[in-house]
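Let's sit down with a protein and look at its sequence and fold side by side. We need material for that, and I hope you will provide a protein of your own picking. Once you have written the record down, we can walk along the chain together.

***
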Amino acid sequence: MEKTELSREILHIFSDSIRKRIEGILCRPDLTEIRLRVNLPLMIRTLRREYYLTEEGELSCGTGNAYIVTPEDIRIIFQKISQYSLFAYKEEVREGFITLKGGHRIGLCGKVYYDGEGKRQLQQISSMNIRIARQITGCCRTFFPYLTEDGCFFNTLLISPPGGGKTTFLRDIIRMLSDGTDYFAGQNVSVVDERSEIGNRTRLSEGFYLGRRTDLLDHCPKADGMLMMLRTMAPQIIAADEIGDAGDIEALRYIRNCGCRLLMTVHGKDVGDILERPFLGEYLRKYPFERYVQIQAEKTGRRRVDIFDARQNRVWRGIT
């Protein structure tokens, strides 16, 4: 069987028993998640629905012949994704995830304890969620004009539930801001990629294409990174993923006063939801973004997009 790019990036992390069953599934273009829980069926999520991986390596809607994940499966995967050195990945594990080459994030769940310095540690891993990352060029083309006016980019906040597609949309908007379009001149974009998901640049990979005027700061806390980029790279636009804590908000206040435009994302259902949040809600009530982009997954696998202005008036709605 010819290996796809996804197969080359993640097939090697699995135990032999999972690898031989899942290899054929990795060629599916609609694959979004692989969920593993000790002593429970291995689950596969696509854009449209959820399946179980069978003993024969097929997808089934029922659990009758599902492959059951063993503690050894989890142990082997954890060893491989940490490259047999837990110490080297202790910061990532502490945050509950490890990012692979290709931008695929593996969420981890297990037993939490706090060490002598009061730092959170995670051990006895019992669950894993492998979220598949893909670059979909052009997915924001239809609504990008509503994020700009007279050559100026509106401060924009992308909102979606986990797995809703906001990081995929973020990449595409960054690319268009950086390269420009027929009606928008490309601008210098600084990207702070705290979790190595947006650009996915490593020593072995150039990662996702984010445009020729884009500078990427990888694996740096957002608040520190945004201020660093502002002071060193003279950006016209700063982009980051999953803002929300007090440090992030303080950085946004400073950047806004410096005249730099903002492109951010946040987990949430809609604008009303995030306005109720501590820190972020208070900031938005005082300094609303000019554009809110709400993203919701449809059963068809596509995304419904609603764009609102600062006063929460809808300016565009569509499916992409």
